[in-house]
Amino acid sequence: MTDHDHLIDWKTHGVKVIPGDQLDPNTAQTLGMERATAINFARVGAQKLWAGTVKIQANAKTGAHHHGALESVIYVISGRARMRWGEHLEYVAEAGPGDFIFVPPYVPHQEINASTDEALDCVLVRSDNEAVVVNLDIDPVERPEAVAWVDPIHKAAS
Length: 158
Known about the structure:
Layout: E1 34-39, H1 41-44, E2 50-56, E3 65-66, E4 72-78, E5 81-85, E6 91-95, E7 100-103, E8 109-113, E9 120-126, E10 134-135, E11 145-146
Parallel strand pairs: 6-11
Antiparallel strand pairs: 1-2, 2-9, 3-10, 4-7, 4-9, 5-6, 5-8
């Protein structure tokens, strides 16, 4: 132990557990989805991130939006996520349970529940402690271009 360890009350300034049934729905929303906050500055003193959940009902989609300068990570718990993005939502890819989705800053996007009979449940983490949501009025293209989610190391199957 160092002298510094004695200056901090770890009981009140240490780990915080937020029960899943105590999330706060009073956060920025987008038509078609239900967001709930677990972690932010107001709830736990988080300085650099926001975390919560999002639910999209079966066969539903959100309005187009972006999250300003924030990076977002979506983890799919259950259901099938269809993501559209771009100036006219012209690109599309899907993710299922256990998949992660990365949304860079300012990217216009739309979440769609690809299932007609199962809710889409996800965990969401953003790179700031506030819930920035900028809802957009975008005319989407008729047929988006499918994009394989790969990285420089893992190439798409041919």
